[in-house]
Structures are given as C-alpha cells and as structure tokens.
Design goal:
Helix 2 packs across helix 3, helix 3 packs antiparallel against helix 6 and helix 4 runs antiparallel to helix 5. This protein is mainly alpha-helical and 151 residues long. It has six helices and no strands. The longest helix is centred in the middle third of the chain and has 18 residues. The protein has one domain.
C-alpha cells in the first residue's frame, strides 16, 4: 500500500528570514553575525530588526500561552510560526478583520492593542524593504456568521 509523505511548505525569502530570525532570537543567538549581515543588506534593515524584536516581545508578553518555536535549522514550521506569518501577511494586506481574528486567538484582550500596533509597524517595515509575505489564502468574513437555532 503506498504511503504519502508529508509535504513541507516551501518558504518565500521573507518567510524564511522572519522564522530564521525568530528562532535565533528565542534560542539566545540573536547576536549572531549572520543575523546582522542579513539585515544589513537592506536600507531599513536595522529598523526592520528592531520592529521584529518589538513585535516578538509584544507577542510573547501578551500571548495567551507559551508559543512553539522550532529549533534553528529545522526545515518544518510549527503551527505558531505559521500563524505569526499569517498575522504579518494580514498586516501587510491591511486586513483589519483578519488581524483581529488572529489576535483574538493569540493574545489576551488587554495586550491586543499593543500587539496590533507592533504588527502594523513590522508589516510597514517589511513592505518598505520589498519583503512581501504571501497573502492569506482566504479573506476573513466581513460579518459575524449567523447560526440558526433548530429545535
């Protein structure tokens, strides 16, 4: 009987850069010369790295739970890494409904505004450096779904 192999999501350069940096920062290797060199290649690289660190700090402090981050060098992505990328892609699209949906899931209500501001700031710096994340596959609904009550 044939078996199916799990398919890895092929990351775009911006996705790879963000996940790779997040993993380096979380593992305590944010001062790695390679991180600095990657961001130095961009005109706004230092600003982008500062915005990413601020976003990760806000997300970490406001998170409803401990977020799962893969080890540096791991090919697969965790669900939290995928959701972080989707949140930032929504920020680049300026899709406020989708941003709100991700934030409702990820962060405590009292932290929502701070994390949302960090998302928008990082999304702007990524866009300014031509680092466009793949757009979300589906758009968020514009209105709350209605459920019929059946007796």
């Amino acid at each position: 009987m044939p078996t199916t192999q799990p398919q890895l999501h092929v990351l775009s350069f911006p996705e790879h850069l963000l996940v790779w940096t997040w993993r380096k920062l979380v593992s305590g290797r944010g001062g790695c010369p390679l991180v600095g060199r990657e961001y130095a290649a961009f005109d706004g690289g230092e600003e982008m790295l500062v915005a990413l660190a601020a976003f990760l700090r806000a997300l970490g402090q406001g998170s409803r739970r401990a977020l799962s981050v893969g080890p540096p060098g791991c090919l697969g992505m965790t669900a939290d890494e995928r959701q972080m990328l989707a949140l930032l892609a929504a920020g680049q699209c300026e899709d406020e409904t989708l941003i709100a949906a991700h934030l409702d899931w990820l962060v405590r209500p009292e932290s929502r505004d701070g994390v949302a501001a960090a998302v928008r700031c990082l999304a702007r710096t990524l866009t300014a450096n031509d680092l466009d994340l793949p757009r979300p596959a589906i758009a968020a609904m514009s209105a709350a779904p209605m459920l019929a009550v059946v007796n």
